[in-house]
């Protein structure tokens, strides 16, 4: 499956399923820990670390259109996934990409983008 097809497929998943996928694939899951809880925790940690890289990337910012629904932002999603693919190991970059879009790239990047203006 190519990246854009995988992203498009995962855009139809529920947030719960995406977090469960992230928590299950992270390799850090404790046997008694709920993968959704682990996924949410991991996503929060990843966003803190990745925010400067995501928001400072001119290609990602150039493709960002807050007026488009995320389902129509496949080019943006692929740019995010491409960046994440080189940075993440042990977790699915497509799952993280869809979760980033669901969280709202504008909201995630607002602190950085507002400092630039």
Structural class: mainly alpha
The ordered string of helix (H) and strand (E) elements is: HHHHHHH
Low-confidence stretches: none
Task: Summarize the main sheet.
Answer: none
Over the alpha carbons, how many angstroms does the gyration radius reach? 14 Å
By DSSP, the count of extended strands is 0
Relative strand content: under 5%
Approximate helicity band = over 70%
Distance between the termini: 39 Å
- The geometry reads as globular
Mean pLDDT: 87
Overview of this structure, please?
The protein is mostly helical and 117 residues long. The chain has one domain. α1 crosses α6 and α5 packs across α6. The termini are far apart.
Task: Describe the secondary-structure layout.
Elements: H1 3-11, H2 15-25, H3 35-55, H4 58-63, H5 74-85, H6 93-103, H7 105-116
Helix pairs in contact: 1-5, 1-6, 2-3, 2-6, 3-7, 5-6
């Amino acid at each position: 499956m190519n990246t854009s097809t995988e992203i498009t497929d995962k855009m139809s998943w529920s947030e719960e399923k995406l977090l469960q996928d992230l928590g299950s694939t992270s390799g850090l899951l404790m046997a008694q820990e709920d993968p959704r809880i682990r996924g949410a925790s991991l996503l929060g940690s990843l966003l803190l670390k990745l925010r400067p890289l995501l928001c400072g990337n001119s290609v990602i910012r150039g493709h960002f259109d807050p007026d488009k629904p995320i389902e129509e932002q496949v080019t943006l999603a692929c740019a995010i996934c491409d960046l994440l693919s080189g940075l993440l190991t042990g977790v699915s970059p497509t799952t993280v990409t869809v979760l980033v879009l669901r969280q709202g790239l504008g909201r995630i990047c607002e602190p950085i983008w507002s400092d630039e203006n």
